[in-house]
Amino acid sequence: MAERTLLPFVEAVDNFDPRYAAERGFARWYLDETYTTVIGLIPQSTLQAMRGWMESHGPTFTVVWDETIRSTTVAFSHGIDSPKRRTEIMKDLCEEWRDGGLFPDEIGGRKWRNEQYTVYYHPYADLRPENVAFTMERAACKLFGVVTYGVHMTMYRRVDGEVRIWVPTRSRNKQTWPLYLDNSVAGGIPHGMSPLDSMVKECEEEASLPPDLVRAHIKQVSSISYFTQNAEKWLEPEVQYVYEMFLPDGVDAKPAPSDGEVESFEMCNLDDILEKMHAGKFKPNCGAVIIDFMIRHGYLTAENEPNYLEIITRLHRRAEGYGPVPKESSH
User: Fold this and answer.
1) How far apart are CA 57 and CA 124, in angstroms?
2) What is the dihedral of CA 310, 311, 312, 314, to 10 degrees?
3) What are the start-end ranges of the H helices in 162-283?
4) pLDDT per residue as tens digits for the range 160-198
5) Which residues pair with 226 in a beta bridge?
6) Nearest to residue 170, comparing CAs of 179, 162, 183, 161?
7) How far apart are CA 156 and CA 269, in angstroms?
8) pLDDT digits over 236-282, tens only?
9) Domain ranges (residues) in the chain
10) Which GO molecular function terms does the record list (predicted)?
């Protein structure tokens, strides 16, 4: 009988190597015509739509062939050189595509989130204001292959010495992954909000957990990153800030559905969670965060997981080629 492994769960979220993006038809997206900072990877369908946009709006982007990497490159055109101006361009572009019925499965109808995500000069530098390149609609980020950021929290206590985690079932009305199992609380980081403040906000909105309680017991413990190409072939490189909230004896609190994002919460031990993961019941990136929890708590080890080192490595993948470009590699 084959030895069981959680590697396929990690492979589900870390399944694209950006070093080979050009040969797969993706265009590098540079911040400006100095070609010194890469902010995304654009598929041909998006590139075609951008060309159509420029027919009626002028040369807001420069699209050229780069012989050194044998790929098309895209950059904001000269004069579009501030976060404010780039944000305005992306707002007009994405809203016109939405209203015109382009990419309906990504930004049409309820898919549109009306929430701004931040695109940074350097995706792995501090999330400080001076690192902000521009902002754009959350739902449209996958159209451009930009790095996005989220927060995940595992809420647990010990019962008779055994770890028990509160596991939510996602709402049947969620735009993505309805009725799959999730982390205790999770969400994206909107523009202008810190990871911790985003986490506290999500705890109150999704799980009815008071901010004072959360801030008293929550602890940031890790981060994970991976590079996903989803089933529709869009690129979704992600970074997740990982938190834990351990409730000691005497602290009487438990999560409860609040904003319609969650159907219910169930307290599960790690053996139960492992079986549910192998059964494919968890949203993949939430399962990746739980794997990180299992590693840090010694539940998943090199002795019981045959792909232990590869799992750890794949949970900390960089979006190679993003951010500042080494001088010898620039356009």
Assistant:
1) 33
2) 80
3) 195-207, 211-217, 270-278
4) 999 999 999 998 988 788 999 999 999 999 999 999 999
5) 238
6) 179
7) 9
8) 999 999 999 999 998 989 999 987 888 999 999 999 999 999 999 99
9) 7-13+149-314, 18-148
10) 8-oxo-dGDP phosphatase activity
Q: To 5 degrees, how large is the angle CA 312–CA 127–CA 44?
A: 75
Q: 164 CB contacts (<8 Å, ≥6 apart)?
A: 156, 157, 158, 267, 268, 269
Classify residue 31 by its DSSP letter: S
DSSP string, 39-57: EEEE-HHHHHHHHHHHHHH
We find that the CATH architecture of domain 7-13+149-314 is Alpha-Beta Complex (3.90)
Whole-model pTM: value is 0.94
Per the DSSP assignment, residues forming a β-bridge with 292 are none
For residues 145-180, one letter each, b for 16 or more C-beta atoms within 10 angstroms of the residue's C-beta and e for the rest, the string is bbbbbbbbbbbbbeeeeebbbbbbbbbeebeeeeeb
Architecture of domain 18-148: 2-Layer Sandwich (3.30)
**Residue corresponding to tokens 């008293």:** 216
Q: What is the spatial distance between Cα 290 and Cα 154, in angstroms, rounded to a whole number?
A: 8
Tell me the residue type at 235: L
Q: Which helix (H) or strand (E) holds 294?
A: helix 284-296
Cα–Cα distances in Å, from 92 out to 87, 101, 209? 9, 14, 37
Amino acid identity of residue 176, one-letter, is T
From the centroid of its chain, how far is CA 17? Answer: 16
Beta strands in 121-203 (DSSP E): 132-137, 148-159, 162-170, 185-188
